[in-house]
Predict the structure.
Amino acid sequence: MRPPSSTPWWDSPAPSSTRRSPAPTGCGIGAAGVVDPATGAVVSATDSLPGWEGTPLRAELERRLDLRVTALNDVQAHALGEAVRGAGRGHSSVLTVAAGTGVGGALVVDGRLVSGRRGAAGHFGHIASPAAVGRPCPCGGAGHVEAIASGPAVHDLYTESGGLAADTREVFALAAAGDARAATAVDRAARALGVLIGGLVNEVDPDVVVLAGGLADSGERWWSAVDSAARGEMLPLLRSCPLVPARLGADSAIVGAAEAFSRDHPLTKATS
């Protein structure tokens, strides 16, 4: 990614208390569901968001805010934020994989999000996984990565083995404390995610892979299993590809959505 010719808006000093803040010139938003990049409308959403599919997100926000709006998927916004300002900054090709309640991600090349024709690119969790054969997926299908590598899947794997835990966080705590069944659940999920990542690296040959989402904060055991499985799946030539944690936390989607707006409306960047 080429360095900016001048100080980018996100590095500008915050306005002092004696200086009036500029009026907003637009709005970037990252939202759940598949957001069509051409229309800014939600064209697909899961059953967990009833009535969300079909929402004219960009048009409705422009009407209510009386501002120009750029809308994109929240995970894509997260990935763009990490690529331009976070763990991927300075790299021309950044693959972000987010694992938490679900599994998703995005590819950013030369600062541009690869969103696909309908905005659906990055549904990595719905790639078939040999480790998930027969396991139901939240999308309505079965055998997908999300069915075994997501946070809820870790909890399911543990309870299916006879373990008792209130949530996924407790499964990780039990694994760290030496519970063999919890450790097995964590390892199975992490290895499945690692195999996915290795396959994606073989496909796109990125400069760096950024791991994000709640599971990326779960500790060394998960990271080690993901990394080992990923490198075992990668072509020998690509095994030096770094896997790094996301840096921006909850701010990444905000940064990415703002960046997407500034790319759509470049004349507003200087005054944002």
About this structure: The radius of gyration is 20 Å.
